[in-house]
Amino acid sequence: MILAVAAIAIIGFLVVSQQDKGPADQKDVKLGIVFGFTGPIESLTPPMAAAAELAMSEVTESGAFLGGTAVTSVRADSTCVDNAAATAAVERLITSDGISAIVGADCSGVTIATLQNVAMPKGVVMISPSATSPALSTMEDNGLFYRTAPSDAREGQVVAEMLMEKGYKSVALTYTNNDYGKGLADAIQSNFEAKGGSITIVTAHEEGKGDYSAEVGALAQAGGDLLVVAGYLDKGGKMIIQGSLDA
What we know:
By secondary structure, the chain is an alpha/beta fold. It folds into two domains: 2-147, Response regulator (Rossmann fold, 3-Layer(aba) Sandwich), CATH 3.40.50; 152-246, Rossmann fold. 47% of the residues lie in helices and 19% in strands. It has helices at residues 2-18, 45-62, 83-95, 108-122, 135-138, 152-165, 179-194, 213-222, 237-246, and strands at residues 28-35, 70-77, 101-104, 125-128, 145-147, 170-176, 198-205, 226-230. The strands form two sheets. The protein has a five-stranded parallel β-sheet, sandwiched between helices. A three-stranded parallel β-sheet has the order 7-6-8. It is elongated. The termini are far apart.
């Protein structure tokens, strides 16, 4: 809900700043909703989209937004993992659907790709509820990117603190091989080691494989007090955890 209200606030600023450039009788402001309606987080996206659209409908029904201007949504599928598909989807939202700003994207990799390839060149604001890669904090965005979720730089600090508080001094670390997983793993490693902890192995795993016995074997051989999996549970994480428990 917070992310949707924030996006609408940004849209309000944009519309006011563009009033002298557009038709005076504009009745709708369109927001693109770019989430992974297919892909590894598809079970999470329906309530996220519904929350954003609920906020839009409440603002519209209030009649208080720019003299009664309606705020409507246009959905697009980021897939979470396919940069080309996400980029094409955002391109369509801007050039064909005429959206004013974007709520999304969701996953870090597609967020970076769509921001750099489409949103920035076209001057369109994006606000993400869930793209947490630390890279998004430092990359050039021309003042067009915002997010309501904290960076994984902070999550890495919290994970390291929890590990030390529970007495774990050494861990094996594996991560989903994408921008999100790599950023989170780097944050965990740097913070844990800064606190005196030891990382016995840092290794990436690909999403959606049928067998992770090689990865489980490498993690087991490296050893450690605990296994840390930074990534998607249903795209390999659960199988690695189960395989490690069975080993």
